[in-house]
Structure formats: structure tokens, C-alpha cells
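Appendix C reproduces, verbatim, an entry submitted by the partner laboratory led by Prof. M.T., so that reviewers can inspect both the input and the predicted structure.
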Amino acid sequence: MKYSAFPGSVACVLAAGASATALPPRLPPVALKFESLRSHVDAFNRDDRELYPQHIPNAAAYDFLRENVPLFECPDPEIVKTYYFRWWTYRKHLQRTPDGFVVTEFLPKVGWAGKHNTISCPAGHHFYEGRWIRDPRYLDDYASFWFRRGGDPRRYSFWAADAIRARTLATGDDRLAIDLLPDLVRNWEAWEKARLDASGLFWQIDDRDGMEVSIGGSGCRATINSYQYGDALAIAAIAERAGQSGLAAAFRDKAARIKRLVQERLWDPEAQCFKVLPRGEGQRLADVREQHGFTPWYFNLPDPDKAAAWKQLMDPQGFFAPFGPTTAEQRHPRFAIAYQGHECQWNGPSWPYATSVTLTALAHLLNGPPQNAIGRKDYLETLRIYARSHRLKREDGSVVPWIDENLNPFTGDWISRTRLKAWKNGTWDAAKGGEERGKDYNHSTFCDLVITGLAGLRPRPDGLVEVNPLVPDEAWDWFGLDGVPYHGHSLTILYDRTGARYGKGQGLRVLADGKEIAAAERLGRVTGPLPHP
């Protein structure tokens, strides 16, 4: 593959410039108030035992969030609390290093991490979530780190190009993505060299997908193939912006090949889902439906006739559970919720990582062609379950907001925490990451799901704002998302059935920099142009 080089200093200039230039003042909120953010942060701080403070300690959390994240409200207090809680935990993982800012998965240092305690497994989630932070320097540095400052982007599966491009769709600034294009191409080709099977599909060890002790096991998995598909399309899009049409065409061809093979080889027409295909001649698809089979929709890979797979999400014999979804179908004989063996198993427990992928994928499906397998009410119900899972009952009976590793999908217990706190001689084991390894775990998204799914902002590369809330028509009378940084503007999305709550009119309203650009009487898709500079 040939491609022309780009000036190698742009990434450094952007990162250094972002660090040296003061962030412009945030525009005042159009309809929401900072008091809700303040009260939530104060409560989180009171409940917290700050074991591993990083660049932004709890004492500075409110000031940071006030300047950087969108405000949100809706009639469901659990969703609102979890939305602010996840911003509050995300900023804990912004770590300043000699190589610029990075985003961590664990707060304590763990032995299986790379430089600066970074791990590539959740990095795609880090970019999707963090793209809504106003200050660009954190993810500018982080993107450069993975390819130019000692990161190890292939230690685990990581949809790097797609995630970096997804950020450009929010910011409207693709200079860094273009500068990193040669690195993204080399990364894709390195995966191709190391993980391309004779079948033409990519293969991965389940543990290197971050999904150890899975039922389907290792082989040609929907995960790595979907990531490579998404990355190929992202590279093609970035290459077009860089004026490299030949490179773009080559990667569109690669994406088309993966799309065809995934649907031909990994789709089980009887079970109606994507499955693992073990490597080797004459192998058959694994006999289990697993939640990672929804991953292709995260990248809009499947054709419309595959939508029937989504019937399993709300099926109690499939993936539905009170603190789910489960990572394997519950009807399978090897489905397990185990409190022995490895502390992080993917044979049944619920994982926020997988729930994030599933809900992002479902939002794409619901924004696509009509289908009758699943609907908006199911999206809202799954998001509510996910929000409700962000809790821990302490020994004194108090319940506090919490995010950790894997959940018992039937009780809400954080399995790995229960195991690890008595792992060695009745207490935490330093070799396993030490005290409260999984506390404030940064391995998933939530805020991005609210912004792009629930409130419906669909990021685009052009100057059109597209909003399609996934709130069912009769579910709520109001909700508001205010101060979303988007293409250099501040967006507000309001729904007010009567017009009395926000005083901006009845129905759905979208504003840019305080001025209305789109409206509709009912919830649904609307578009409007961004103001000219």
C-alpha cells in the first residue's frame, strides 16, 4: 500500500497549542442550570474515598465539569444521576504524563497495562465518550500517544481509526486525523499481517478481545472483523479528506470484502445471529449466541435482513436480565455466573463494555431502515437497566453510585470486586491490582449513549445538525441536553410536550449558540444548518 506522507509535526503542534491556549469561555446554558451538576458532584464527592487522585482531583471536579461537559435532565433521576456520575468518573482517568495526556482504564497501576498504565482494550470507548469534552487537548494528546509516544495499540483489539474519526464528527476538526493517517494505515496493515486468516477473515484470541473465558472462544470473531471493517471505512473517509482518493478506494474495497465475509461466514441463519468461527478447515460456527454478536451494527455492517438478531436482546432466555444484558444467551448449558476461577468471565455476567457496544449498535439500527425486531422502548429500557446497574450497596446498607468490572446480571453484585476484596489472605492482592482495582472503572460509555442515542444527536461530517431522539413518543413530557460542543458551536436539544417547561415552544427544538435551527411538534428526526462563522 502506497500513500503520501503528511507533515509529521501537526500532532505535536496541535497538542502543544491546545495546552498553551486558554479555552474560550463556555456560553451560558440556554435552558438548563448548573445547580443540578453541582448537587450531583457534591454528593459524589461526599460518598467517595479518593484512593488514586490523578490530574483533576475531586476538589476540582465541579469546576472542570462545569467548563467542559453538556448538561442533561430528564424525568428519570437514575439516568440523570448516572450521566453526571460517569462524567465525574471519566475525569478521574485523565492523566498528565511526560508524553501528554492519556486516558486510563484502571486508576491503580496494573501489571498488564502498557506505558503510563494505558490499555488499548477500552480506548475506543474513551474516544467516543470523551469527544463531548470541550477542551480538545486531552484526546489530541491521547490520539498521538497511541501511535507516536509509546502506546501499544494492538495489545488488545481496538477500533482506533473509527474512534478517532468519530471524534472528528463531533468536533468538525479533522486535522489531527489527517496527520495520523499514515499511522492508522500502518496499524491496519499490522493487524492484517498478524491476524488475517486464510479464510479472509480476521481472527482473535477471546482474551485479546478483552473477553476471556467466553463460551464461543477464540477464532474468527465478529468483534475484530467489525473493528477492522469500521477502521477501513474510517481510513477511507480520512483519506478522502486528505485528497488521497486511491488510498480511500483501496480501503473501501477492504471494507467491502470484510462485510461480505462476515455475513457469509459468521452469520448463522438458523440461530439468526453472528457467531464465532474457529480457525481451521471444516470448522463449524460455535453453538452459542453471544452478546458480542451485536458488534457489527456498531459499525453499520449488516444488511437489513439481519435485524432479527435483535429479538434476543429482550428475551429472558436470550440476553435480557434485571441487571443485564448477559454476555451469553441464558438458555445455553455453559451459561454461568461463577464466583470461582477467573474473576473476569464472559460466559454470562453483564459487562458495561459490552452494554455500551450493544446500545451504540442499537442506536444505529434504530436510525436505519424500518424493522420490527426491536424498538425505541427497548432502547430506553436497556439504558434504564444499565443506569440502575451503576450502584453499590455498602456494608452499612447505604447505596452509592458505582462503576466496576463485571456484574451479576440477576442481583447487581459486582462479581470481580466481591472476589478480589478477599483474594489473598482475606484481602486485596497487589498482584491483581490492589485495593479497589475496579472502582471507577473506565471501560465503557454512558454519556455518549445519552447524547447520540437518547437525545439523538447524530454526528456528521458536514454543516448539518441531525437529531433523532430515541425516546418513545409517550415516555416523557420533557428532556433537555444543553451546551453540547459540536463543530465549534454549542448545541441545545429540548423536548417540551406543552412548551411550559423551557418556554421555547411545544415539541422538539434544536438550537445552535442559542438560536433555533430545527423544530418539530413531535419526537422524530429533524435537521438544521449550523450558523455560518
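The chain is about 35% helix and 10% strand. Additional entries are available on request from the coordinating office.
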